[in-house]
Structure formats: C-alpha cells, structure tokens
Design brief:
single chain; 470 residues; alpha/beta; globular
C-alpha cells in the first residue's frame, strides 16, 4: 500500500529514470514484445550506442546473437526464470563485439504474469579480449637461439648462459633496457627446453591495472565479486610450459608477495577461492631497470628478487656491442625487403659511421625502426640506404652528438665526449671506474672491496656482472 502511494507522487517517474542513469551498471528493460523501454547511460556506454538507437526497438533489430536464446533478456522473458552472473557475447549495430556479465530477471505483475524483463550488466569486453589474446598466443613462439643476432663477446656470453639454462626448470630474471630483446631470449629458452611442446604465455605486468592483473594471473572463482565467473588464470593456462612476466617491477607489492608464494609452493589460489591448485610452470621475468635500484626504490621485493634470479641474464645495450650493428641492420633490411618487395643491398659507409657514433637509447628496436623508416624513403633504383634516407629525427639526434672538438686540444675533446653522454651513462662509466679502482686496491678481493664500498657482497657481484668487470 505504501509503495502504491510512492508511485503516485508527482514526478516519481522522472526521479526513477534519474536514479537509473547514475547507477554504475548497465540497465536494460524490455516489455513483453522484446522492445526496449529503459536503457540507461551506462548501458549505452558499454554497448557504444545512443539511447535513441535502442529505445522502442526490439533487441534483435539492433543486436546480433548467434541464436535467439543467447539473449539473456529474451531468455528471462520467455522462461520466467532469473539468471545470475551469466556471460554474454554479442555484437552492436556497428558489428563491434561486446562481452558482459549479466544478472537478468523477469518482471511480474500482481497476478504473477510476465510483463517484461530487466538486465543489470557489467562490462568485461576488454578483460575478455586480453584473456582471449593470451589464449590464442599460447605456444606461439617464433624465436629460437638461431634468431638471436650478434657476435660480440659480451653478447655471446649471454647466449651461452641462456642455452645452459634450458636444461633446468629454475626461475630466470632477464635484465635489460627497453628494446634489447628480452622476450626474444625468453622464447628461445622456452623453445630450447623440454617444455617447448607446452604453452608459452607472455604478460606485460605494466599493461593492466591492479584490479585486473591478479584475476588474469591467478584466475577467479564464480561469485568472488560482482560479475566474477569461474575462469582459469594464466598460470593454469601455462601448465607444463613457461610464463613470461614482462616488467615484473610494475606489479604492486601485494601481488609480488602472492607471486613469491606461488613460486615457493608451486601452487596458486584463484581470487575468491579457498583451495590451492598445483602448478608446473617455469617463470621467466624481465626487468628494465637495475634490480638493486628497483629494490631500493620499492619497485621490487628483495625476497622475490632472490627467488626469481636463480638464473640472471644481463643483456647488454646496443651501445655496448656496436660491432653487431652491421649484422643487425642487414637482417632488418632482408626482413623489410621481403615485406615491401624491395631489393636493397645494405647501408652506405656514411650511414654505418653515423650508426657507430650514435648512442642508441632505444637499442635494437630503435635500429629496426630506423631501417624501416629509411626504406620507406628510398627512391626507385636506390640499392643502399644513404644518410639522405634516414628519418629526420634520427639525423637531428645524430648531428647533436657529432660536434667535433678542436684538433690538438685534448681537454676540449674530453669535454665534448662527456657532453655526448646521457647522465645515466656518465654515472655508469664513473661507477665502473671506481669499482675497478677499489678492487685493485684490495687485490681483487670482492669481500674486502664490498666492505670498503659499504655494500653487500651480492650487490657488488651484481654490479661487476652488469659492467662486465673481469
């Protein structure tokens, strides 16, 4: 009786519609003929539609389903039964795929006759796409050790150490700047191991918000939270194979702790579950900053670092192996020759001189992009990449680093060389020289040198590996 009085209040319908529009869930209501009578702003946002495109029209005039029964609203209207946490994938009027988790109910009148249906929806389109992409990429590893190009001594040492690591199942931490080819090494290790016939799954930890990454890695249990369904995580999907966690330092500390437990116990627990599941997965992690700095800046838990770095691979940046540039450049030219249907023979001596002087902050990836950009600027009949073909931005940066010092003025030459270095490179060079000096003072005794430097022995050993101090 009281409800009847509320409904009769002047403007009640306007109040109700205003309330529906501010709810942070999609609301879609249909009548007995399947026509939309309520369609709130959130639902329009989820489905990429305008209210005028949907209101007053039948669902199947707007949305495409494989079968009519796949519409949870129509199902509730015909069956008179409610459904909870039901996943639905369909297409809007532009052909865009949408995935939602729905709670759908039939609407009854006072005589228990069905007069419509209401649906409350949560959007999981992006989550579904990310998981689908990972599933499709399982085992799609195209790189082997034969794909790795380089003959410089420091680079060959990393390759050899990587090959030895294929014989075990220990965790691996790959350290390297952006663009050095960390995933290439990870895939090569997987393909060279006994796990090569099992899945290889790669996930960039920086690409997802914290609210999604835990469910994607460890899976979810139905009912754990609104809209959650029973879903295996990437660790379960990688069973028997390898999982690559790229930019591990982007994970928040709580997730790092859960990952540490998974590595130690070899079990995972889905979000919302109370039971553990055994896993047999090799973990390879990558980090694009100095691990010691990452620990000091609270980007990486120290205990997780020790667990991951059973095998540590330090990939040298391109500026430390410039003798490999001709090989790399030629491989990229061959790649884009096939892609662009060209027949370019190589790079000119002038270009090679520029490449040799350049500092390569973007590493091998930057070299590939410069080769690709240059090949887009070639004229018909050109057989080699010349300085004229190089992208304008590269020429500008290379020119800034070419300022010559006055002849015979050694002090000026040194100043010019220093000025071409980035701050990070200058600090790294200074640190390397100081480490070598202290080691020599202590007869190359690491323990005594570490004590003088007031750092741990392990930290000193890491830095010696990083700077390749013999």
């Amino acid at each position: 009786m009281y409800l009847d009085q509320i409904i009769k209040i002047e403007g009640f319908q306007t109040i109700l519609y205003s309330l529906v529009d501010v709810i942070d869930s999609g609301i879609h209501i249909i009548d007995t003929k399947g026509r939309t009578i309520v369609y709130n702003k959130k639902m329009a946002e989820i489905e990429g539609m305008e209210s005028d495109d949907v209101l007053g029209k039948k669902i199947h005039e707007i949305f495409k389903f494989k079968e009519e029964t796949e519409s949870t609203l129509i199902r509730a209207l015909h069956s008179g039964k409610k459904t909870e946490n039901s996943k639905q994938t369909y297409f809007n009027n532009l052909g865009q795929e949408i995935t939602t988790i729905n709670n759908t109910f039939p609407i009854m009148d006072q005589n228990q006759r069905i007069i419509g249906a209401i649906e409350v929806a949560k959007d999981i389109t992006n989550l579904e796409r990310l998981i689908k992409d990972n599933i499709l990429n399982k085992g799609d590893t195209k790189y082997t050790f034969d794909s790795i190009i380089g003959t410089s001594e420091n680079f060959l040492e990393v390759i050899e150490k990587s090959k030895r690591s294929t014989r075990t199942t220990s965790s691996i931490l790959i350290v390297g700047e952006t663009g050095t080819g960390k995933e290439l090494f990870a895939q090569s290790i997987h393909n060279g191991s006994s796990r090569s016939t099992h899945p290889f799954i790669s996930q960039n930890c920086a690409a997802l918000p914290d609210s999604l990454i835990e469910g994607i890695l460890f899976g979810t249990k139905k009912g754990a939270f609104t809209g959650s369904i029973e879903r295996p995580g990437l660790f379960e999907q990688a069973q028997g194979g390898t999982i690559l966690l790229d930019e591990i330092n982007s994970l928040n500390p709580n997730l790092q702790a859960k990952l540490l437990r998974a590595l130690q116990e070899r079990t995972i627990r889905r979000v919302g579950d109370t039971k553990d599941k055994k896993i047999d997965v090799r973990v390879i992690a990558t980090i694009n900053e100095d691990p010691i700095d990452a620990i000091a800046n609270d980007h990486l838990r120290k205990d997780l670092y020790y667990r991951l770095s059973v095998v540590s691979l330090f990939i040298p940046p391109l500026r430390e192996r410039k003798e490999d540039i001709p090989l790399l450049a030629q491989s990229f030219i061959e790649k884009f020759n096939a892609l662009f249907e060209l027949n370019i023979e190589g790079i000119s001596e002038d270009v090679y001189a520029l490449f040799s002087e350049y500092d390569w902050p973007g590493n091998v990836r930057e070299l590939e992009h410069i080769i690709e950009g240059s090949m887009n600027l070639l004229e018909p009949g050109d057989t080699k990449i010349s300085p004229d073909h190089l992208p304008a931005l590269f020429k500008k940066k290379a020119h800034l680093e070419e300022a010559p010092a006055a002849k015979g003025d050694d002090h000026t030459k040194r100043e010019t060389q220093v000025s071409t270095l980035s701050l990070d490179d200058y600090i790294a060079n200074t640190e390397k020289q100081y480490l070598e000096k202290v080691l020599k003072e202590h007869g190359m005794n690491i323990s005594q040198a570490a004590k003088t430097l007031n750092i741990s022995r392990q930290s000193l050993q890491y830095r010696l590996k990083k700077y390749q101090v013999k």
